[in-house]
Specification:
There is one protein chain. The chain is of the alpha+beta class. It has helices spanning 2-21, 71-79, 101-107, 114-117, 152-155, 189-200, 228-238, 245-256, 261-264, 310-319, 346-359, and strands at 25-28, 43-46, 53-57, 62-66, 83-84, 124-130, 136-140, 165-172, 174-175, 179-186, 206-213, 218-226, 241-242, 270-276, 293-295, 300-306, 323-328. The chain folds into 2 domains: 2-175, 2-Layer Sandwich (Uridine Diphospho-n-acetylenolpyruvylglucosamine Reductase, domain 3); 179-333. The chain has 11 helices and 17 strands. An 8-stranded antiparallel beta sheet has the order 13-10-12-11-15-16-14-17. The chain has a 5-stranded antiparallel beta sheet with strand order 3-4-8-6-7. The protein has a two-stranded parallel ribbon with strand order 1-2. The longest helix has 20 residues, at 2-21. The mean pLDDT is 91.
């Protein structure tokens, strides 16, 4: 504990000095998400000195952990108790110790099960934050009822470290589902969306889905999780081909980490675009006839297209009631070359700017990471 206090004290002094000199700091854990966001600059502030479990009560379904702790280490500790992070945070194929808990929260990214179980922020109960004034602040706690008024802790999920340095987080965890099965269906994209919409209106234990294919046909995989009886009943109702769980588990992990062949086949000069849409959005006409990889029961669609197609993709997403943003820049420009999702209104831009100024008045934390100018 004394060593941890010393490490935190050193980081605090560094933040205080940076604020006084207005020196930009680049908060970094294992660097597994350096490919995403805008420019990466500033002196690196490594969070990996802040490691270890602070408190874990399996019976209470709550864990508090320091943010430099490897995500794989936390997941292993939960698995030993038959528990998990249901939102399946991505590792992006990094070395097992690279992805950190702090990076998971700061990025706010969730895996294949997100549409069914919720996002990172839905499981974030509390945080300890070092702000731009070198003040250590605590928000939330270890139970949901501790949250009153504005839930600042959840604001940190997806802030990409622009509001401060997370030192500890408390997370809600859940037991691993006793029943699981993956079904496969051969169908085109329109039929896949139709099936998913129909199943979504039924009491089925849908957990994750993905579709990939060409303009004429493709493969839809649907993962079921829940009580064993509910999963078995759903398999009988839905039909399709039931896949070997030992084989398909690796495929879902690859989907989570963008390691499927579909992602690896990205043509030179093409960026990876992320379209966030209403799940009921129909098949979209995409630039160059691109065919997406569809997740989240239709609500998330990955598209490979040149940067020049950005305006067309954003307009198509807006017309469908959603948004589009570059997630990975063309290979020649990685890392740190991906764009950001524009906020839908000037009012929201002003709110974000005020929050940034409140938490980080000198603008030292990850400047430019989320949007130009802040």
């Amino acid at each position: 504990m004394q060593g941890m206090d010393s490490a935190l004290a050193q980081i605090t002094e560094r933040v205080r000095a940076a604020a006084a000199d207005q020196t930009p700091l680049r908060i970094r854990g294992g660097g597994s998400k350096d490919f995403h966001g805008l420019a990466l600059h500033g002196e690196v502030l490594d969070t990996r000195v802040l490691q270890g479990m602070v408190d874990y009560e399996p019976s209470e379904l709550v864990v508090t952990v320091r943010t430099g702790t490897p995500l794989a280490e936390l997941e292993a500790a939960l698995a030993a108790q038959g528990q998990c992070l249901p939102f399946e945070p991505p590792h992006f194929g990094a070395q097992p110790q690279a992805t950190t808990v702090g990076g998971m929260v700061a990025a706010g990214l969730s895996g294949p099960a997100r549409a069914s179980v919720g996002a990172v922020r839905d499981y974030l109960l509390g945080v300890v934050l070092l702000n731009g004034r070198a003040e250590l602040l605590t928000f939330g706690g270890q139970v949901m009822k501790n949250v009153a008024g504005y839930d600042v802790s959840r604001l940190m999920a997806g802030a990409w470290g622009t509001l401060g340095l997370l030192t500890e987080v408390s997370l809600k965890v859940l037991p691993v589902a006793p029943g699981e099965a993956t079904l496969r269906f051969e169908c085109n994209q329109a039929d896949a969306l139709r099936r998913l919409h129909a199943w979504g209106g039924q009491p089925l234990p849908l957990n994750a889905s993905r579709w990939a294919g060409d303009a004429h046909t493709g493969t839809l995989q649907v993962r079921l999780r829940g009580a064993v009886a509910a999963v078995e009943a759903a398999c009988r109702t839905m039909g399709g081909e039931r896949l070997d769980p030992a084989v398909v588990a690796a495929d879902w992990s690859a989907c989570r980490d963008q390691a499927l062949p579909w992602f690896a086949a990205r043509p030179p000069g093409h960026a990876l675009w992320r379209l966030s849409l209403p799940a009921t959005a129909p098949v979209m006409a995409l630039p160059g006839g691109a065919q997406p990889l569809v997740e989240w029961h239709g609500a998330l669609r990955w598209v490979q297209a040149p940067e020049s197609a950005g305006d067309a993709l954003r307009e198509a997403a807006r017309a469908a009631g959603g948004s589009a943003a570059m997630f990975r820049a063309p290979l020649a420009r990685e890392p740190g070359g991906a764009g950001h999702a524009a906020l839908p209104s000037r009012a929201l831009e002003q709110i974000h700017a005020r929050l940034k100024h409140s938490f980080d008045p000198a603008g030292i934390f990850n400047p430019g990471r989320m949007a130009p100018g802040w």
